[in-house]
Every structure is written in C-alpha cells, then in structure tokens.
Fold this sequence. Notes:
The protein has helices at about 5-25, 30-35, 55-75, 80-110, 150-155, 170-175; strands spanning about 115-120, 130-135, 140-145, 160-165. With about 180 residues, it is an alpha+beta fold. It has one domain (about 5-175). The chain has a 4-stranded mixed β-sheet with strand order 3-2-1-4. A hairpin with a 5-residue loop joins β2 and β3.
Amino acid sequence: MKDNRIFKNYIEKRLELIKRLEKGEIDKAEFLSLTDGLFEDTTHIEPSVISDREEALYFYQYFNVKAKAAMMAAKKERKNSSEYRNYIAFAEEYYELKEDVIYKFLKLLNIDEYEAYFVRATSSKLKNRLIEINVHSMEKVILHSMSTKTLRYLRSVGVFDEEIRLSKIDDYINKPY
C-alpha cells in the first residue's frame, strides 16, 4: 500500500524549490538536481496504478527529472560513445513513462480544471510539438508533453487550444540545462 504522506510531503518540498527558482536563489540545473534529491528515499514505489493527483504529480516529476538527468549526463559524453547512447536510451525511456503518467493524470481531472496548447519554443526539437497543460486546480502545476496520444485526448475532450502561446514558465522551458 502506498503512503500518501510521501506524495503530499513531496509536493510541499517541490513548491519550496519552485519559490526558490522564481526568486533566483537557484538556477534550472540546481532546481533539477534538488528535485531529483527529493526522490532518493522513494525509489521502491511503482506507479502501476495512479489513484490521485498528488501521486500523478509525483510520478510526472520523478520521470521528468530522471529523463533530464540522463540527458545532462549524455551531454558530458562523446556523441558516438556507448555511454552517450545508454544515457539517451535511459532518457527516452523515462520520457515515455512520463508521457504515460500525463495521460493517467488527465483522466483524474475534470476538463474544466486545466487548459492545453502548444507553446513557443526556441529548440527546433520542441517547436510546434511541445504541449503545455496548465492545471488550474493545483498550485503551480504545469505539465509538458509531446505525446500524440495526449494531444488526441486533449482535442477529443475539447480543451486543446490550437493557437501557439507563450509558456507560463517560458524562461524555464527555453533555458538550457
């Protein structure tokens, strides 16, 4: 059985880190590293069935941070090395798991609790592909997806705005780590 205190405790600590990031006390790389540190004691928890929003947010962040950590590690390796390829494979696996969590997360929400749209991105890889999901019903919860499955779902329930917008956290998403 999952201990929901773990998820609630994580959300409190996550909000503290976001406030520090917003104040400029830490940068994006430090934010990611500190966020990664929040998961150290909970690696035994598996997201087989996500039963509530706090749990969904926890696993979204977990897989997102793990993917970004693998990408940062890959950047330190030679592009054609086996280490580089391994880190990229880990990152892709974590991003795929994150996308699954986003889909489950959306199913836990009412459609009036969020909005979704493509965001302006400076990265050519993200341009016209990065979906931002602003969850109004939770404090400072903004999800990012590139999943066609998620996009189809958002369109099917009528919450996806086709207009490309500036991200609510533009400085964050367009800053390299």
